[in-house]
Structures are given as structure tokens and as C-alpha cells.
Write the C-alpha cells for this entry.
Amino acid sequence: MAVSDLLMLSAGDGKEVSFDLLEAISANGLLYFLLANLLTGAVNLSTVTMSASAPLALTELTAYLVTLSAIVSVLHVYRIRVKFW
């Protein structure tokens, strides 16, 4: 079984979607950028980042990346493109 076979997802309408995180990010690049900036601001406001311990920093970074990836992945699977123009 190839790795590409493991990355096939169903969009709920019977059609399979090949999933690649880079494709998902590029399909909604501006949204990804804006969400990343908002999440960065939220992290900076909620935590004193210069005095955070290594486990806390790693946990925040992981949550940050998982959140961004999950949002653009769901949009990609359902073929939703957010455009601001």
C-alpha cells in the first residue's frame, strides 16, 4: 500500500480527495496568513513568552500549528476557498 493511498479522504459527497497539507495551505493562503497572525497575537497576549518554560512553549507551538492545519485541512476537504477580493 502506497503512502498516497493512506492520504485519500472522503469529502462526504462520495468523491475522494487527495490530501496534501501544502495544497490545503496554498488554496487558502491569505486566510492561513491572517489566522496565523491572529493566533500569534492571542499567544503573545495570553503568555509571557520570554519567561515560558520549554514544555509550555512546545505545547503552545503544537496547538498553534494543529489549529492552523486543521482549519485549512477541513476547508480543503470540503473544497471551500475563502477569498477576500
